[in-house]
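Researcher:
Attend to token order:
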Amino acid sequence: MSSEDLHIPRERLSKSARLLHYAITSLKEELDAVDWYRQRADDTEDDELRHVLLHNMREEMEHASMLIEWIRRNNEDFAGHIATYLYAKGSLLQVEKQAEESDVSDRAGTGDESASSSRAKRRFTIGPLSDS
């Protein structure tokens, strides 16, 4: 059950933290299933079983992708990072460096730490402390 790995009592979590926890826990489970099916498909000697296992693996990938999209739609921090890295060309470390430089220049240009640039929304935060 996903609540078994909560780090604090459920009743102390905001609704958004609880729902994000459910999505992240479910995503981990889907990715584990992808890995398990892939390993079993590679290990089996039976072609029909291999095809069934690979089919099942792809179904789990679909589920994982749906969860990633839910997370993107419901968490601004994840949405910002997804916008930066998903479909990025070239070295991901270079993409990160450019994003950080852009963030610094955005803040320097406005003189405001809370610049409303798209990159400013991508910085990690702990999220809202209430549901409002």
Helices lie at 15-43, 47-74, 76-85, 92-110. DSSP finds four helices and no strands in the chain.
